[in-house]
Amino acid sequence: MNLNSDTYTRHATPSPHTLAQEDDMPGLLIDTDEQLMTHTDVSPSYLHYMSTTSLAESRPAKILRAGFSHDDWLGLKALFTKAARLFNDSEGANRDLITLTRAVIHQCHHALVSHLDIILGTPEDKERQPSIPLRSPDLQFLRLLEHREFPTTAQEKGWTTCDEKERIAIDFLSELHGILGTALFFFGKIIAKDGSLALPGEPNTALPYWLSALDVFESGYNLPARTNASYACREHWLLAVSDSRVLIALIGQFITEKEHKRSTSELFTRDSKWARNSPLGTIAALRPPPTQRMALSLMSLSELMLIATDQFMRGILHMPHQPPTDFPYFSRAGKLLTIATEVLEVVERLPSLEERRRWAAWVQSVLNLIKPEMTTEGEAERTALTRLRCCSLVCPPGQETEVADDH
């Protein structure tokens, strides 16, 4: 990985894999919604450089290739934290929330285009191909990240042979994919409640955003370093948890299609054409040719539920117990409760009684991970209500009487 010691700014050196090419689109200014200035904790100087235009609209290549610094990364995470808080606190769709989420997606798009060489992979034999310029996170970015508290030994870190700076870059990209996919999930949820919030060119239904989120997560799981046998990178819990939330939302859509006697064969494989340099267009261009969605389209409800719940458990395994410094408002109890609630909403709609019992018992197992001392008063009340809903599915009232008579 080439690092230019003479500068602290990440310069976007052209790459053979670069999607954003020079074009005739004028101007370097990005439209910024004034509502962001008053409804976020992010500094106005950072917001000035962010876009809130349509996700289907092509963005100027000069902006996308302007580089993505450590300050940009910190600003993006602060923006995402604010969007997540608003999403969790908001009971309905509103323009402030969708504007904020749209800005997060645009910034993630900017970061992706700035790191395409790492995402798509670089030549293994660098000595044979020295003419291909490699772009890497700026030196300041890496130095600041290196000052974080990491385990000291390779065994504690869980990583094998890999350059330290490369490891930090890949871990950053893994987290970036998690943030982008989660933001798309939020966006789809908001649009599902109020399609009028979509800007020109943006779909006014949730499905395209959720399918794009699946593509993002798949790309995150298949980053070159993650599939390299000589490298074991850190698993980011947000990837698995949000991937499962999207799958659960799509299962709900699957059930809706079945209830209306509509075909579900193309539910996971529907595609749209997007502008090349738009966020949605870049996501589509980066996904693997044989996507995971093609396999999902052949599965039954039970198989889809199994995949979603397995992914949830994978994410829960890596989920922090205490709020990480990057996400100070994180609550493990709140996240577990959200997982249980969203899964239960789908479980209650499953057509098979046996399947409802099976997956309601799984929801109970997630609720059992929530310790009383972890919860606020509101979370404790919601947990108790969710337990009651599970009990009604696992042991229907009529069966409870029969069991009591047998004893």
Describe the structure.
It is a single chain. By secondary structure, the chain is mostly helical. It has two domains: 25-120 and 162-298, no CATH class; 331-407. 56% of the residues lie in helices and 0% in strands. It contains 18 helices and no strands. Helix 10 crosses helix 12 (279-286). The longest helix has 30 residues, at 164-193. The radius of gyration is 22 Å and the shape is globular. The relative contact order is 0.10. The model is unreliable at 1-40, 43-48, 123-161 and 400-407 (pLDDT under 50).
Brief characterization of the structure:
With 407 residues, the protein is mostly helical.
Helix content: 55-70%
Rg over alpha carbons: 22 Å
pLDDT < 50 runs, ≥5 residues: 1-40, 43-48, 123-161, 400-407
Helix count from the secondary structure assignment: 18
Distance N terminus to C terminus?
Answer: 70 Å
Mean pLDDT: 75
Percent of sequence in beta strands: under 5%
Secondary-structure element order, N to C: HHHHHHHHHHHHHHHHHH
Q: Tell me the number of strands.
A: 0
The gross shape turns out to be: globular
Structural class comes to mainly alpha
Count the domains.
2
**Major β-sheet profile:** none
Features:
single chain, mainly alpha, 2 domains, 18 helices
Please outline the helices and strands.
Layout: H1 34-39, H2 44-47, H3 61-64, H4 70-89, H5 95-114, H6 116-120, H7 139-146, H8 154-157, H9 164-193, H10 207-221, H11 237-259, H12 279-286, H13 292-296, H14 301-318, H15 332-347, H16 353-367, H17 377-394, H18 397-406
Helix pairs in contact: 4-5, 5-9, 9-10, 9-11, 10-11, 10-12, 11-14, 11-15, 15-16, 15-17, 16-17
